[in-house]
Amino acid sequence: HLYINLKIMTFAHARTHARTHARTHARTHARTHARTHARTHARTHARTHARTHARTHARTHARTHARTHARTHARTHARTHARTHARTRA
Q1: What Å distances lie between residue 3 and 6, 8, 41, CA to CA?
Q2: Taking Cα atoms as reference points, which of 54, 31, 34 lies closest to residue 42?
């Protein structure tokens, strides 16, 4: 009889503790698997985000680099066209 009672009591407690510890375990495992999932999804979405942001920032970078390289190109072309203009003016 003692053995049977232990089984019944164990089953009752199992339900009670299951609800109590469910949240605790959820938090524990969430932290454990967070890094694993992060790596998995990072690879999956990397290409998608790359395409999205590329279109978004393209115009911004274009403006930025245009100002940066303007002086450089000016010098380069000045030398290239110097001879052409010299002939035209002469």
Answers
A1: 5, 9, 50
A2: 34
- pTM value is 0.21
Residue type, 37: H
* Dihedral sign computed on CA atoms, order 69, 56, 54, 49: positive
d(CA 46, CA 53): 11
Instruction: Please give the structure tokens belonging to residue 43.
Output: 């690879």
Give phi and psi for 5, each to the nearest 5: -60, -40
Give the model confidence (pLDDT) of 28-70 as tens digits.
778 777 887 788 778 777 877 787 778 777 877 787 778 777 8
